[in-house]
Design brief:
Structural class of chain A: alpha/beta
Largest interface: A-B, 122 and 122 residues
Low-confidence stretches of chain A: 1-15
CATH superfamily of the domain at 94-406 in chain A: Trimethylamine methyltransferase-like
Number of helices of chain A: 18
Helix content of chain A: 40-55%
CATH topology of the domain at 94-406 in chain A: TIM Barrel
CATH class of the domain at 94-406 in chain A: Alpha Beta
Strand content of chain A: 5-15%
Radius of gyration of chain A: 24 Å
Number of strands of chain A: 20
Largest sheet of chain A: 7 strands, mixed
Strand order of the largest sheet of chain A: 1-7-18-17-14-12-10
Oligomer: homodimer
Shape of chain A: globular
Chain lengths: 511, 511
């Protein structure tokens, strides 16, 4: 059999990529250790007190008549002309305390229902990028085709808890109709948990009506929800407040996320950025509770610093790591579920910088036991670009994190002293029964990372991680299977989209 | 002045790279938080007991007459024929307890003296690679020129605590003479702390004699030291033991580092790998104390898993992260300084995989408060290749870690509530006095990471992180300044090297 070695080599190099991720079951994720306290309690209290001072003495603007009325009824100091609200800490903390410390985010398929809070870590893909990129087509305006492909990837890879959301902007669809198309696409393409935009009153009401066709009416708490960004410093505009009030009234989730850049929209220290963020996040969460007590709301941490050379926000920086860790500590102090972000980078391409910064985003998220890790994959260029390859590269980190958090066992079997004794001095364990019984599942099996020696790697085309990620995202899309949805629901969604497409002609969504 | 915009753009794109790292002072590094306990105490005790069982009942081979005699005199159960030593836990722990929990590693320039232990984190560059690589010359046999360049980089960048060590193998120099050239190069090129190889009896004795020309005789504890790898399972060979005994007798440091691959040189669980590593590391540390009680010794953690597809060790994997965190916990239990590794990767090129895996090595090192972070930069290809660009890419992580650990302040000034009040609702902080006073030093200033917008980045040549790292390593080498060394010492070193070059002709260094 002189041909055997040659044949083996050929099979090896033409082998289809094995995608170990897809062999995993979908599951909820928790950490085996306590969340990391970066600051001692007295420093957390100092931040808390600073933010209470801000809300009591500086106040926060709520640029919406309904919000101002709600605050006035609750007894806050409201100036209708300046739209400024000053909030005593007692009132604020009483409202924040109405927020559920943990809630279920319902998926179309109940096996994908999520626990938000209680130490659970849930991963969400990229969100809201105007551009998409991959190696074949480069950087380009994102389209509904890109949108659908990102939903399919997040649906197919079991590590993702959410498969839908804003993902990318479908720039081939008019702005005023995107929420309709997005919602229909998500419901059609995945039965995992989904999110949506919560801007203005019109979009959330349309989304709720479409989801009632799927989940029934009234909607269970929560089947959708979205991020509202506080316009720092200290201002919630009518567009954000509309989404918050609309979703809260339908018992859907609002993730209140100030977007603070220290040195621009807050003072130039991360201490001040985090204190201001705390004031803004709690002010927003309290408003959700005014709109409906007990409605699901989350504390979003996104404090970064401005880069003093370019004026850009700095992503995946040490400052952002403090931001995540300390905001999570504050959220735990108030017993409110916490959101941060996982694949942030300023890099223009999925290179070493992109991976370094993404890991500087993800490690703090995991150590902080972030309940929703937004942007867990796919970021490039400060969030302007969703990269298909970066999506896959970041998913390797997520797969590693699952293994890291779940799979370390210390007991008599795993310590295996008898096996050490049996093999003895200077032997090896390659062919022991224990090795043979466990070799398939013992260790994390990487999808992107190459562990070939140099010669094998050269023989396989000297591909770097980026090129391998390009093959893998396409191979995963090939394995996508659309979940069942009743034709009657599909038709009802189509009818809704058709009707609203007519009605929304010329309408300003945020008026 | 119609030319102004053009001229500014030209200056911008031809500007020499700013290397913020080099503006930093050299300093010792500690973490503001407690080391991370990955396992609860009872699991640490389970590992401890398993490893005590191994040393008592299976034993460990010490393949050296002097070592066996030392163990026999101490009262261990020694079989001179099989070279097997069985060690009671009482004897073992009594010996390990003689190890200094913290010691000073002396540099030629006292301002670079290091504290090893007591929560200090010290960074060491790559060590021992047969190949070097950079973008210009590719992957090649390492030479003494490469060796010198790595010393110069680590000397010039203030983040590195050690500038010397094995770095790369100078393959242009005969094996039996490399330690002479290496030692002379280090002493000539840097006055920071240095390490060396500790294999056999001859090399350490030569190194000690050369360093006595610099530091005087007898040497202070410690001015040099090295890693010995236990040949797992459970075996220290004569080459390793020679180095340990020779260095211990001169009060120099030994870093006992079993190289265990779970599934090959230990059972296929990380629990067993770590228990076996604990037995091997403690057995080696105890031998150092038998050779000289109170001599500086360290607990090295390097437990990885074998990759079941390729048979390679897996570097930068979740398994190695557990290995670092739990070995550090064990070292703290025994009050012995701890060493782990920081830039490990299997990647063939400095790409996203390399950066991902390097961060999976470094984050556990930092969380564990690793006293010596070996291989903190530069690794490629499972340690076969030292890459100049990877050196620089990994240094960005180290710079970020310094900032992360050192620079977060929470006090009345940094909380800046008055500044928040002054700017008020919806303003910005770009031109406040606080921003103007602090913008240069407020945030980590990256050297490699690009935060330019896409258009600026394109205009600057669309360079990825790897290409930028290539420019930066050359720019740093240009800024290298050789520290003063008395001519008399230089001559004495040259004389020693010349004499030993003659004497070592045809000598087996490890006989």
């Amino acid at each position: 059999m002189s041909e055997a070695p040659k044949r083996r080599r050929q099979r090896n190099s033409s082998r289809k990529p094995t995608i170990a991720w897809l062999e995993q079951p979908f599951r909820l994720l928790k950490s085996p250790i306590k969340p990391l306290d970066w600051l001692p309690e007295e420093k957390i209290e100092a931040i808390h007190n600073a933010s209470m001072d801000i809300l009591e003495n500086v106040g926060m603007a709520f640029m919406d008549k309904q919000a101002l009325d709600l605050w006035e009824q609750a007894g806050a100091d409201v100036n209708h002309k300046t739209e400024l609200v000053k909030i005593d800490r007692e009132l604020l903390l009483e409202l924040v305390a109405k927020t559920p410390s943990s809630f279920t985010w319902h998926a179309r398929n109940p096996k994908y229902n999520l626990t938000i809070g209680d130490g659970h870590i849930n991963f969400v893909p990229n969100s809201g990028m105007p551009f998409a990129s991959d190696l074949d087509n480069g950087r380009r305006d994102a389209t509904s085709k890109d949108y659908e492909n990102f939903v399919k990837l997040a649906h197919t890879i079991p590590y993702f808890h959410f498969a839908g959301g804003l993902l990318v902007e479908s720039q081939d669809i008019p702005v005023s109709l995107r929420h309709l198309h997005r919602t229909r696409s998500m419901v059609n393409l995945t039965d995992k948990a989904i999110k949506n935009v919560s801007h203005g009153y019109i979009i959330p009401e349309d989304v709720v009506k479409m989801l009632e066709l799927v989940f029934g009416s009234p909607l269970p708490m929560a089947v959708t929800g979205g991020v509202v960004n506080v316009t720092s410093p200290l201002r919630l505009d009518d567009r954000m407040i509309g989404g918050m009030i609309a979703y809260a009234r339908h018992n859907q989730a609002t993730i209140v996320t100030p977007f603070i850049m220290a040195g621009a929209t807050s003072p130039i220290t991360m201490a001040a950025a985090i204190a201001q963020q705390n004031a803004e996040a709690l002010g927003g969460i309290a408003l959700c509770q005014l709109a409906r007590a007990g409605s699901p709301a989350m504390y979003g941490g996104f404090a970064q610093n401005i880069d003093m050379r370019t004026g850009s926000p700095s992503f995946g920086a040490p400052e952002g790591a403090w931001g995540t860790l300390v905001a999570a500590q504050l959220a735990r102090r108030y017993n409110v579920p916490f959101r941060a972000s996982g694949s942030l980078t300023n890099s223009q391409v999925p290179d070493a910088q992109a991976s370094l910064e993404a890991n500087w985003s993800m490690w703090p998220c995991i150590l902080a036991q972030t309940n929703i890790v937004y942007h867990a994959v796919g970021w490039l260029e400060g969030g302007l670009v969703a990269s298909f390859e970066k999506f896959i590269l970041d998913t390797e980190t997520i797969g590693m994190m699952y293994h890291f958090l779940e799979s370390f066992e210390i007991d008599t079997d795993s310590l295996a002293v008898q096996s050490i004794a049996d093999v003895g001095i200077g032997g090896h364990h390659l062919d022991t029964k224990m090795t043979q019984d466990n070799y398939k599942s013992a260790f994390y099996d990487p999808v992107i990372s190459s562990r070939q020696n140099f010669e094998q790697w050269e023989e396989n085309g000297s591909k770097d991680a980026l090129q391998r990620a390009n093959s893998i995202y396409k191979a995963i899309l090939e394995q996508y299977e659309q979940p069942h949805l009743d034709d009657s629901i599909k038709e009802a969604l189509d009818d809704f989209v058709a009707r609203r497409t007519e009605e929304l002609k010329g309408v300003n969504l945020y008026s």
